[in-house]
Amino acid sequence: MTETLLGSSEPLAQAYDVALVDLDGVVYTGPRPVAHAGASLEAARALGMRAVFVTNNASREPSTVAAHLQSIGVPGGVDDIMTSAQAAAAMLAQELPAGAPVLVVGAPALRTAVTDAGLRVVASADDAPVAVVQGFDPGLGWRDLAEAVYAVRAGARFVATNLDTTLPTERGMAPGNGSLVGVVRTATGVVPASAGKPQPEIFHQAVLRTGATRPLAVGDRLDTDLAGARAAGMPGLHVLTGVSDARAVVLAVAGERPAFLARDLRGLLEPHPAPVLEDEWWRCGQAAARVRDGSLELAGTTRPVVLDAARGPAEITMNEWRSLAAAAWAAADAGTGVVPDAVPVLHVAPDDRR
């Protein structure tokens, strides 16, 4: 798959049959809905696109997630939720016989997922588990981690729901599942397989569940959502309602680049023009951008406009953002990329008028 922007002459909700949608930063932020999320997903469903909500959070039951969505006006039931706990359990179920003993180190939601996958949950390495699956639980202690170490050192398969090293809390960033998995990894020397983003397994499991043939991943974070989409071999739509901003997208490394860009989930309901290289300019609609001497330039009415961080943030249109991303990525791949410190903060205007 090419690692530049794609085009779609029809709304993405018609071009793709399922959207694999990240939650935090895309659908909601904490308890609050992201603007336009619910209405956009409802409209996408009317155009024939199903939504499956794909999350690295392994500590919440799917029913809890579904209830949260419904409380903020977002359409979605239990069958529309795919957690990293479910993905890890499904991955193990594909490898192990039904009823195989699995040591679960994590929250009750992970034990539910393993049981629902037809495997037998055990609590001790003395129960001879054939696999250990570890997910985040703020109540994990030394004894839990020690049981995991004993089992892995005895030869049990080691799987993590995700390897996120940190997670946000109201007091700041706290250790995530990846940090706790690191304790077991350090003590055993065994690197676990991971089911969560940016690994592709969670996307593959969501596609298997739906039977989709034209999936589209949707996210707000380049190094998890969009990297996971690339790893899974499917296009990704990046939205600006969460972590990675427009500047980060322009500077995105190969392997983390989205295929489509949008301000929010209304992008599912729109066609997406693709930038085209003409001479040295990447053109998209009336916008054009290029890289010259390490700087990004936009085509002005009389002469090129150089984007310079020293001048402060720059306001750009959607098509200018697409052109800038295509130009910067092509230059980076050619070994003549932009100077990152020269790229300003980019504010994408609410429409294609300045």
Structural class: alpha/beta
Net shape: elongated
CATH superfamily of the largest domain: HAD superfamily/HAD-like
Radius of gyration in whole Å, from Cα?
22 Å
Question: Any idea of the CATH topology of the largest domain?
Answer: Rossmann fold
Average predicted confidence as pLDDT: 94
What's the number of domains?
Answer: 3
Instruction: Walk across the major sheet and give the strand order.
Output: 5-4-1-13-14-15
Q: Helical region count?
A: 11
Q: Which segments are poorly predicted (pLDDT under 50) over 5 or more consecutive residues?
A: none
CATH architectural designation of the largest domain: 3-Layer(aba) Sandwich
Helix content: 25-40%
Residue fraction in strands: 15-25%
For the biggest sheet, the summary is: 6 strands, parallel
Distance between the termini: 33 Å
What is the CATH C-level name of the largest domain? Alpha Beta
